User: What shape does this take?
Amino acid sequence: MRHFKMKFASTKFLRTLGPVALFSLVLGGPWTGELAAQKAAKKKTTTEPPTVFGTVRPAETRPEIAIPADHPLAPAIETARRGRAALRSVRDYTTTFSKRELLAGRVKSQSMEMKFREQPFSVYFNFRGGAEAGREVLYVEGQNGNKLLVHEDGVKAIAGTIPFAPTHPTVMAENRYPITKVGISHMLETVIAQWEGETKYGEVDVKFYPDASLGNVSCIAYESTHPTPRREFRFHLTRLYFDKQTNYPIRVEQYDWPSGGAKEPPLVEEYTYSNLRVNVGLSDADFDRRNRSYRF
Assistant: This one.
């Protein structure tokens, strides 16, 4: 490994490093900047991006906005609100969560097996494929100091389990949004809030796809497009997919305006929930770092 100058480190030396510094030595990629990131975090407070998965109040705390029946977005919002109603009975689920995000000018793809519970807000990830394969992440609101726990696989596992604040710069180097904003309900609520806000303006073209599909799942999809960049519009194009059978929203795609002569809009973010199984009865053990099937 090129990051090591020595062939062997004594146990005493490893103890003096501490888990975070050791984690930085062992791992490649964005995790290597942990010590520098800690210093930077003391000087600057991390804020969440104000786009999808930004701060959005839960549906039960937001008054439902009256939408003009003749507005192009009205059918899309009506369908999204039906999806919201369908999700009210969902207490937990397992799914394959896939995401593509524009980070530092490049689109990064990741896929992970996910367990999710609404109350208390709980998330477990097991990464599949790529450089992060085998990584486990656990977050439970109100536990573990309200930090997410990260454990790598292979030689990287020597660092052990490392706690991070959800918005720590090291974590955000690989994510557009913190883990506290993950989940189907939050994905839907942010799109509803986006579309409701956009009903104050015109300049939107809406398309309906009654026979869309994602893998072997039959879907319907709504697509909204704004022709001209304006501060009122966060994205050029938004596409939201719903499972025809359940009304659950299972994918959102967000694109920026084309530039530099490009014909196709560049992807900003895409989040997909596939192989979805709801109300499977996830328990505290599924979100316990001491679970013997985990490696925290």
Remarks:
- The chain has a mean pLDDT of 85.
- DSSP finds five helices and eleven strands in the chain.
- The longest helix spans residues 11-26.
